[in-house]
Structure formats: structure tokens, C-alpha cells
Amino acid sequence: MTPNEINLLPLLSYFEECHEGDLLSFTQWLDKAIYMLHYLPADSFSETERQNVCHVLMELKETVMEIYLNKK
User: Fold this and answer.
1) pLDDT value at residue 19
2) Are 12 and 28 in contact (CB under 8 A)?
3) Contact predicate 23/10, CB 8 Å
4) pLDDT value of residue 9
5) What is the pLDDT of residue 58?
6) How many domains would you assign to the chain?
7) Which structural domain, as residue segments, surrounds residue 28?
8) Is residue 67 part of a domain?
9) In this predicted structure, what is the pLDDT of residue 3?
10) Distances from the Cα of 35 to the Cα of 7, 10, 44, 53, 66, angstroms
11) 61 within 8 A of 27, measured Cβ to Cβ
């Protein structure tokens, strides 16, 4: 493996083991995580940190949904 290659096998194994390969289930859990972040006490994270975390989770969700839709 070259330095630029990433081994995604652990991530794929996670989907299979924890979500039985159901990517839609995984995206639903991401939605719940994003929703819950908005209810943490205001002093837990700065507004920028909260926005950045939500942004990363939303991008992950969009990527997984793209995989899910392309699979069909």
C-alpha cells in the first residue's frame, strides 16, 4: 500500500457487523447524532466547532447515501 492509499476494510467491516450492511440504517443514526449535537449545553463546544462537526457528519451521510443509491 502506498502512502496515498487508504484501507477502508475496517469501515466496510463496521457497516457489515454493526448495521448488517444496511447503509440507510447508518445514515439514520448519523441524522440522530447531528440532531443531538444541537441539544448539548451551549458551553460544550464553540458554535464553530459544533458547525464543523455537523458539517463533517453531513458530508459522511451524503457520501454513504450516494453509495447506497448507486448500489441500487
Assistant:
1) 86
2) no
3) no
4) 84
5) 93
6) 1
7) 9-71
8) yes
9) 62
10) 30, 26, 15, 12, 21
11) yes
Phi, psi (5° rounding) for residue 5?
-85, 145
Whether residue 55 is contained in a domain is answered as: yes
Q: Can you give the pTM of this predicted structure?
A: 0.74
Nine cell digits for residue 5: 492509499
Contact 58, 27 (CB under 8 A): no
| Grid cell in block for residue 60 | 459522511
- Which residue in the block uniquely carries the three cell numbers 447506497? 68
Give residue 5's pLDDT: 82
Residue with cell 443509491: 69
Regions of the chain where pLDDT drops below 50: none
* Residues with Cβ within 8 Å of residue 72, at least 6 apart in sequence: none
Q: Is residue 1 part of a domain?
A: no
17 located within any domain: yes
